[in-house]
Every structure is written in C-alpha cells, then in structure tokens.
Amino acid sequence: MEKEGATVSIIDGDYDDAVARSGQEASDTCIVVSDTSWPGYETIPSQVIEGYSTIFKEIDDAIDSSGIEHPDLVVVPMGVGAFMAAAITHYRGGGRSPLIAGVEPLDANCCQVSSLAGDIAHVPGPHESIMVGLNCGRPSLIAWPRLASGIDWFVSVDDDAARDAMRALAESAVVAGETGGASLAGLRALLANEEAAADLGDLSEKTALVIVTEGVTDPGAYEKIVGRGHDSIGRVLTAMR
Fold first, then answer.
1. Could you tell me the residue ranges of all domains in the chain?
2. What pTM does this model have?
3. pLDDT one-digit tens code per residue, 200-210
4. Which CATH architecture does the domain made up of 45-232 adopt?
5. pLDDT at residue 65, rounded to an integer
C-alpha cells in the first residue's frame, strides 16, 4: 500500500482495534472502506459483499467452460464473514444447495463461537495464527444473519494444518500463502471428522470447491514452510550436467 502512495498507520493492537481506529476517521471528507460492519456503518460493507459475488460468477463461468460438475461442497475461509456472506447468497439461490463449510483459525474462530452462542460473540485477542488474514475477533454485523442460517459446518484449524495444506497445494502447482491454505486444511479436517464425513457422504463422484484467497505475502516464510521458493512452483525443472 505504501508503494502505491498510501500513508500507512500502524496501531498497537489487533484487527478489531484497527477497525475501531479506522471507524474514528469516518467523516464527510474521509470514506472508510471495510468489509466488516457495525451499527451505523453498513452501506459500504454491503457493497463490498456485492463485489465479492463477482468471484463466484467467474467460478461458475470457469466450471461451465471446463465441463466439470458444479460443486457439491464449497469450502470458504472466514475472517469477519463478508466473503462467506457472498458465497451463501450465491450458492443458496437458483435451486442449488451444496454443503457450505467455513474455515477459521483455532484462536480466532469468532464465527464458530458465535454460532455456538446463537448470536454475535467476540473472541478476544491476541490472535496469533499465521493465517493473519483470518485473525478477526468479531463477525460482521450485516454478514452474520447469512452466516447463521447458511453454513452447514464451522471448522477451525491450527497453524500446522495450514502449513500442511500449503505444501499439498504446492504439489498441485497452486501457490498459496498461510491464509490461502486454510480452506484445504478445513476440508481435510471435515473428512477426518466422523460426523462431518457421514454428512458429506461418498465424495468419489462429487465436486468440492476449495477457495484459496491468498498468494505469497512473505516469500521467506513460504520457502521455509514449503521447502522451496514460490517462483519454482508449477515449473518443470530439468537438471543438466
């Protein structure tokens, strides 16, 4: 962001503290653009969710052109739940009814905790997962109603699961950062859970859509986790003497 000419202020706190601080800046001359929402700040987050819907339309187009079946299971990473809200709106309409699973870090699972509580709940920090894009302590006010009624499985995973998923994705020529590996980690956790596996049924003839929302944000950390640089993923390397 700084390279694009923005002035970046770093606060002493977590994501929720940063959101609260940015909210203080809102005025007639300062527009706050965020995908989370709170009382009195709902219009722009609603527009952000609408914008996210473009991704799922593009996925539909790609699936239609490839000839594979539309998903029976959709696995989506969740922070405040805005992206998930777009997924639910898309996949709960038009007569489609895939199972939908949302994935969060184990120590920032605010959507899962809220589901268990039956209402929006706060998971206090510090949130220290390497899946930093998902380190959020409270669901979005406008996203929550859709999450509460539209998600079949809330899944929380630890950092080791995310690392394993990054390595597995690299083997399939997909470059994914720590947050990017969350959905595959969540799918693996679902398949390892007896109750969830029974709900999913035999997946051998079914299609799972795993959303990867992050590439490499820290090349050094990526190479340490995966064992090779991100620029080598997907390349055919020929050794010559």
1. 45-232
2. 0.90
3. 888 788 899 99
4. 3-Layer(aba) Sandwich (3.40)
5. 93
